[in-house]
Amino acid sequence: MLDYSDKVKDHLLNPRNVGEMEHPSGVGKVGNPVCGDIMEMCIKVEDEVIVDAVFRTFGCGAAIAASSMVTELIKGKKIKEALRLSKDEVASALDGLPPIKMHCSVLGVEALQKAIKNYQEQKSSLKN
Amino acid sequence: MRIYFDHAATTPVDPQVEASMRPYFAGRFGNASAQYEEGQLAHKAVEEARIKVADLTGARPEEIVFTGSGTESNNMAIKGTAWALRDKGNHIITSSIEHPAVLESCRWLERAGYEVTYLPVDEYGLINPALVEESIRKETILISIMQANNEVGTIEPIAEIAEVARRHQIKLHCDAVQTVGNIAINVVELGVDMLSMSAHKLYGPKGVGALYIKEGTSLASLLHGGHQESGRRAGTENTVGMVGFGKAAELARERLIQGPARLEKMRDTMIDGIMKRIKWVRLNGHPKRRLPGNVNISIEFVEGEGMLMHLDMMGISCSTGSACQAADLKASHVLLAMGLSHEMSHGSLRFSLGHLTTEAEIARVVEVLPGIVEKLRAMSPLTVKERVNA
Hints:
Chain A is of the alpha+beta class.
């Protein structure tokens, strides 16, 4: 097995915030079957604060751990702060990822950004 | 106690093999090419090992060349034939599911101006001998087909392909790294001109392989230097490794009397157990024409590495065709060639059994795998609708 940190293993064995959400504020789905990772993230936003986040991932151990960690990192954060979350922050929160798996943390961040974008689009279409 | 289900990757060195090797590290350390006593002791041991490897495969000892690995044997057969027969033609026929040692040797030759046909396989991973025949051109100099696929365990119709090769007077190489020691084979009955094998797949040491080269086969060497291995492969003999290979071959011959039937029974118990307890599972490879110890399944909606890691943490070792385990992040070329979707290729697991595998170990996998799959499926975004339609 790849040299995963204990944190990655923990998040794989006990992923946080797995599942779907009723009436999410925003949904982001990224990845494709060719590379073997598909990630879906739902967020609930109240007063521009992410009050809840859940994910579902078809992917390797690192992809699952990264999505799990992203949901942990963004809960309770303001949208503005969440948008600043970087792949390196996700990786370091997991005590690092093997170099070949860094793209998994990218995917987690992309799913989040897509979910936020989806939320912002829905919000602006409501205003109009 | 860990449960090891990756014997197709490598096997532990048999204690008897290890014991046979030990005297040749420091005690009988002589150079097998030397004329004095130490050298002659080593030389005798190497030649005895050659006889044992020959006996396992139905070859004559002088037709066995020791190499450094199965990979080297494959390289030697393919590049050596391409060079030796370069005036006769520049076309090679192989299959799309060969081991990288064969595929990459062929790709390297393509860059040097050779042409290669990569034959497709059917849904079971079988190569059609008629397709081999259709692909033959007047420039064809070599056909290289594996005896059994390392991932899905499908056993190819080598004797039929040899018939085609013989009719057209084309040399046939067979990568038998997965079969030698695991099923009874005979190079004469198979009708091959060259056959690759590797010691560490049959409880021998790593770092030593062999190539059977039928008498009269013209083949260029890859390694030039001394006159070792009848001038076919230069380099001081790896006496320790060769002795170990010989002992492993001797033990394999005894094991072949009853071993395969026992493994087949356990293999089928495992396949049945998994299929009964988990929905949406596909058996990869041929149900009957498969290696006695090979179980390869694809589990829908989940990815192989996640399963592999859960199993690893429970003390069970196996492998996957998922891209996530590969350095190039590509899914198994074998499963894709068999027509599996990318999702299904990523969701594959291979359990390869060995002669030390017990029924209790099989039962353990069948017991824990459903829970792991259920957990990962609950995490999977592939929708229920897709699942119902599957």
